[in-house]
Every structure is written in C-alpha cells, then in structure tokens.
Amino acid sequence: MTQIPTFEEIAEAHGHRCPGIAIGYKMAKAAAEWAGDEPVRVYSTTTRCPLDALRHTFRLTDETLTIEDKGELHFVLEKADGSKLFIDEVPGSKIKNDEGDKLRKKVREGTASKEETARFNEIQEELLQQAFNTPDEKLFTIHS
Ligand SMILES: [Zn+2]
C-alpha cells in the first residue's frame, strides 16, 4: 500500500498549517486506500493547498501530475490499467472565517502586525482542527 506520510510531514512539506492541507490529507488517505500499491497519475483543477497533500503522498512529478487551474477543487486519479478515482469538494464546504480572511490578506501583503500574524496562525490552527473533526463526507465526495 502507498506509504501515507504523517500529517506533520505533509504540513512541513507544504510550508504551513492550514485547513486546506488538513482536508487534502484526508483526501490523500482515502485515495491511498484505493490506489493500493499501484502508482497513480493525478489530474487537478486547482493549485490550492489540498493538492500538496496528494503531491507528497503519491510523490507526484511533472510527469504524473497535470494541473489545469479552474479554481475548483476536483481531482482525478488514474492507475496504469485506466481505472479512475474522482474526488470532489462538497460545494460551500470550504472551512474559513471572516476574521481569518481579513488577516490572511494583511499577512500576504506583509502589512500584518506581530499580534495579527499570531492571531492568524491561531485561527488557522482552529480551522485545521475543525477540518479534522468534520466527517469526510461533509467535505468531499469520492467515487471510482
Ligand atoms: Zn495551506
């Protein structure tokens, strides 16, 4: 079976802790069960955080990962025999809050104070826990 990295390893490779990478980790775990020992190719319509979890779990390269950014969270995994797995975000399930969104903008623009940056990281951690505590089926659908 595909060796699933720990969440800590995935978050480190991703560069930060956020709800998106937590959701991606849940998707990658479910996908690894389906993949078994076989290598997979992945087609993604997003460059958002969850993609990184698949990238690291399946050690995707430019040859095995195709990205067509349409701003939707939709992944198709394919084995060598052509069988496919479809993963789709449940519409409107994105875990976020207004305070976090406002702070994210400032943090990205580099105008956040030390306190604001600390508060942003705190919110991200709360949302990450929320992502882990939400049942998979409320976050994404998965079918082959
Ligand atoms: Zn992220």
Explain how this protein is built:
The chain is α+β, with helices and mostly antiparallel strands and 144 residues long. It has one domain: 60s Ribosomal Protein L30, Chain: A. The chain has a five-stranded mixed β-sheet with strand order 2-1-3-4-5. α2 runs parallel beside α3 and α2 packs parallel to α5. The two termini are 18 Å apart. The mean pLDDT is 95. Bound molecules: zinc ion (ZN). Zinc ion (ZN) binds next to α2.
Amino- and carboxy-terminal Cα gap: 18 Å
**Biggest sheet: strands, sense, closure?**
5 strands, mixed
Q: What is the spatial order of strands in the main beta sheet?
A: 2-1-3-4-5
Low-confidence stretches: none
Q: Give the mean pLDDT.
A: 95
Q: In what range is the share of β-strand residues? A: 15-25%
Number of DSSP helical runs: 6
Whole-number total of structural domains: 1
Decide which structural class fits the backbone. Answer: alpha+beta
The helicity comes to: 40-55%
Q: What's the CATH C level?
A: Alpha Beta
Shape: elongated
CATH architecture descriptor text? 2-Layer Sandwich
